[in-house]
Structures are given as C-alpha cells and as structure tokens.
Design a protein that fits this description.
- This protein is of the alpha/beta class and 539 residues long.
- Among the domains are: 80 residues, no CATH class; 137 residues.
- The chain has 20 helices and 23 strands.
- The longest helix has 18 residues.
- The radius of gyration is 26 Å and the shape is globular.
- It starts with a helix and ends with a strand.
- 32% of the residues are buried.
C-alpha cells in the first residue's frame, strides 16, 4: 500500500478522479480512507459517497458486499461516520441493514434499497423505534427486493407480500417512489388485491410506482384513486386474466409515463388494454410488451398510429414489443414481413423491426413488431426468422418454431441475449445438422455456447435433440445451481438411463430438477443428479 500511494500521490487530482470513477465506490472507500488527507478529500467527493451500494447481483440473487467482519467493522466504525452527511442513497442487504443505519446520523439520506427482505425481517425492521424517524421523515425513494422462501406455496407468498406492503405504506409517509421486485427469477413476488389487506395500501404522496401484480384486474386497482398523485407507473402482469365486467374509473390526467408487460397471451386487448390506455390522454411516455390474439388483422404500424398515438397528443416516447396471433381457417392470406414493415415508413418513433411467421401445424400465423433499441425484459416467441441484434435488457427468452433449431441458432441467441436468466423452448422437430456433425470425417468441433447468467431452463416440450443440446458439455456450458424442467422419459433416453458420461457434467450443475411424467422415485436418477432437489410430477 505504501509504494502504491507514492505512485498515486504523483498523479494530479483530475487523473485520480478519472481512475477512481472506473472502480467500485465501496472498494475505493475501503482501500484509501484515511491513507492521507489528499486522498481523503478526493474519495469523500459526492461522486463516491452520495450513493453507496453494499449489494451486487450474482447469478440468481443479490449478495452482500461485506466480505468479512473486518471490512464491515471498518465501514461501521470509521468510514460511514466520517461521510455520514454526504450519503443520500444506501443499498443494503438484510444482514447489514440495522447495523449500518444505526452507526451514524444520515441527515441527507432520502433513498433506500433494501434487498432480500422477507415478511418477518420487514416487520422487525419497520417496527424499530430507533430507525422510525428515518423511515417516516426522510425516505422518499424505496427500492425493495423481497426474498420469498415460500415459492412452492403461492397463497402464503401472496399474503406475505401483502403484509410487507401494508407496513411500508403505513410507515413511509413521505414516499414518492416505490419499486418492488423479486430477489430472483426463482422467487416471483406479485401483488394480488384479492385479499383483505389491500384496501389499506394507498398513498397521497406517491409519484412513481414500479411493481409486479397478479392480473390485469390488479392493475386497475392500482389506478382506482388509491395513488391519486401518481405520474409514473410500470406494471408487470403474471397473467392477463380480466374480470367479466371491466369498469374504468375515469380519466387519469396526472399519469405521464406508463408501461405494461406480460409474458402470457391475452384475448382481451380490445376490451381491456385499449380502454385503459384511452384513460391516459396526457401520457408522454408509453411502453408495451404484449402477446395478443387478434381475429382478422395483425397489429401493425397503421394500428398503432390510429388506435394509440392519435389518442395521445402529448406522447413523445413509445417503446413496444407486440406479437399478434391469428388462427388460420381454410385458405387465408396474410401480409408478408415487407408488407408489415411498410406500415412503419412514416412512424414517428425509433427504429422499428418486424417479421411474420406461419405455423401450418398449429394453424396459426404470428406477426412480431418492436422498437429498437429494445428496452423490455422479455422477448417471447423467437423463431428461426429472428433478425438478430443486441438485447442487453432482456432477461427472459422463449423459443418456438416448427422448423428445427440448429446449433448455430443457439449461438445467435446467446450473443444477442448475453444476460439471459430464463430460457424456455418448444420445438418437436429433430435437428437436421446433428448427423452431419457426428459423421464428419474431419471431426469438426462445435463452438461451445456459454450461458453466463442462465438460472432457469424449460425443455419439457421438445425433441430429444434439444435436451442433448443443453446437457452435452461439449455443446453447452451451464453455470452451477440451474433449475431445469424436463420430461422424464426424454431425459431417460438422452442420458442412456442415467449412465451417459457426455451429459453427466451439466447434470451435476442442476440444483432443482422438475420431472414431468414421473411420480415414482428412482435411485439411478438421483445418483446421476447428485446436487439436485428432484420434484416428481405426473402432469
């Protein structure tokens, strides 16, 4: 440390600032605090002290950055007390929240990120009288990820989230921004207003809400006046179920920014979603991520211009990913990809990409349209016609086609979606090029596909070739602790009755294995998956 500081002291302040901004704030403060007065002055700048994040995302959840008691004690006893008046935002894990908030007075703290909270810890934390003044009088922005250890008990999970949210809106009386997420894709947490707690969930100060809810009906509850000052709302739906009678409660003149997303297909686009949008005449920013069944015509540029943009005169930003489906009856003609793209020639927003797929076996045709750059978390229904591109925001991807997916296709998917966490696949056609690779006299080597962040894989409705595609360690590199859904008989065939060496490496990385079509335990299977918790499910 002595020699490195001599080198640093020879650099001008401007250069040190540039170097330090490339590094993590926590590392900077821990390494250079109290080394000398000059470094203290630099690292105590608000650039390094206003927002301190003591958590980071790691594969499938958030983890605490306090790697040791020594580090934790140094921050609590020395560093945080010396910069307490400069801190405006703290991101903290459950294990360190109380200790960090108690070690100093934070007069300018107005934003909190609380990670891996569960109902019990939330009740204990929010009832702490020594911290109540901070929560009640200072915090205006609250970001929470709820850790749900009842992911197999949906009713209990929903009630737990309800209790936590009820407490939040009771305690945090100055809240203007509230963001509620799950701690990982393994543990979905969603609000459901079909319980006795939610009449109390309301706020006259809340301006921005980012949240997951169970159904479209719950989205309408959010806009029933309980948050009457809301100007920004981002809603992710678990499903698009709508009540028999949809009652829209009137205009929403305060709403300026709205986004709606759902991975499942809706039949109620005209009856539910469009009427909701028509309540937002002052909207300036709109985001839609939807899969829609339509009767006769695809949703294209002409539809968006006449049915949405024309109804919102103040709209200046419109991002979307919309896939529309039409069932094929008898002889029907559909517009081509070129025809759809023509409808976007004079479109006022962004670059627009579109393509059309026909599925004779399903008797269905689909049209996919989206704005680029792509800002959504989902990309659903990808086929071999996928045009490529880079989609850094996407975390969940689904693939479907009636034509085979070859190894090169999966290479394209991995490159286009580098941060994918969930992948589902439906394809019953065998790979055409598999035999050519196996019979190649030059022993051609396939490029290994590495999924660095994948933690959930659905391959229960596929041809055996795709199970091989993901379980062969020579084709795919999987991270540890992945969750896999697969058909039992298919898995048994691919692994040669759980004896095959070429699939053993990736199978050993599975932490949870959901088997369809099997309800009896198998000793040979459980030995083949030594680290997996196995769920036997007949249907």
């Amino acid at each position: 440390m002595e020699y490195s500081c001599i080198g640093l002291n020879n650099l001008p302040d401007e250069i040190l600032m540039i170097i330090f901004q490339k590094l993590n704030n926590i590392d900077i403060l821990y390494s250079f605090h109290d080394v000398n007065e000059r470094l203290n002055k630099i690292i105590h700048d608000r650039i390094f002290t206003s927002h301190l994040s003591f958590v980071k995302w790691s594969l499938d959840n958030f983890i605490d950055l306090f790697s040791s008691d020594i580090m934790f004690n140094r921050f609590c006893l020395q560093i945080l007390p010396s910069i307490h008046d400069k801190i405006q935002w703290l991101d903290l894990d459950l294990s360190s929240i109380k200790h960090v908030l108690r070690v100093a007075n934070y007069p300018n703290l107005d934003s909190l990120g609380l990670y891996n909270i569960d109902e019990e810890s939330a009740q204990c934390l929010f009832n702490d009288e020594t911290l109540s003044s901070i929560f009640k009088n200072q915090i205006t922005t609250l970001f929470i990820t709820i850790y749900n250890n009842n992911d197999d008990n949906h009713e209990r999970m929903t009630l737990s989230v309800a209790n936590t949210c009820d407490k939040i809106f009771t305690i945090f009386t100055r809240l203007t921004t509230f963001v509620l997420y799950e701690s990982s894709y393994k543990n979905r947490v969603r609000l459901n207003f079909d319980n006795p707690f939610f009449p109390n969930v309301r706020s006259s100060t809340l301006l921005k809400l980012i949240i997951n809810v169970h159904s479209f009906d719950d989205c309408l509850y959010l806009l029933d006046g309980r948050f009457d000052q809301l100007h920004t709302l981002h809603v992710d739906l678990a499903n698009t179920w709508c009540p028999d009678e949809i009652i829209n409660q009137g205009d929403l003149p305060n709403l300026k920014c709205f986004s709606l997303s759902c991975k499942l297909t809706t039949y109620d686009y005209n009856q539910a979603i469009l009427p909701l949008l028509y309540r937002m005449s002052n909207l300036e920013e709109l985001g839609l991520c939807l899969m829609v069944y339509v009767n006769k015509t695809f949703i294209d540029g002409n539809h968006l211009k006449t049915k949405i943009i024309k109804q919102m005169p103040r709209l200046n930003q419109f991002t979307f990913f919309i896939t529309s489906f039409i069932n094929i009856y008898n002889e029907m003609s559909f517009p081509s990809t070129e025809d759809i793209q023509q409808t976007f020639i004079d479109f006022p927003f962004n670059k627009i990409i579109s393509y059309v797929d026909n599925f004779p076996d399903r008797k269905q045709s689909q049209c996919c349209i989206y704005s680029y750059p792509f800002l959504m978390r989902y990309y659903t229904g990808i086929t071999n016609n996928f045009p490529g591109g880079l989609f850094e925001h996407v975390r969940s991807v689904s693939l479907f086609d009636e034509q085979p997916f070859e190894h090169e296709f999966f290479l394209r998917i991995q490159k286009s979606f580098p941060f994918i966490e969930e992948l589902s696949l439906v394809n019953h056609k065998p790979q055409n090029q598999k035999q050519s690779y196996q019979s190649n006299s030059n022993n051609q080597t396939l490029l290994l596909i590495e999924y660095s962040f994948l933690n959930k894989l659905y391959i229960s409705d596929v041809h055996d070739d795709y199970i091989e595609q993901f379980l062969f360690h020579t084709k795919t590199y999987l991270q540890n602790n992945i969750i896999v859904y697969v058909d039992y008989e298919s898995l048994q065939r691919v692994t040669y009755n759980f004896t095959r060496d070429s699939t053993r490496t990736n199978c050993a990385k599975i932490s949870k294995l959901h088997l369809w079509g099997q309800e009896k335990r198998s000793n040979s299977l459980e030995e083949y998956f030594p680290y997996a918790k196995i769920y036997y499910q007949l249907y």
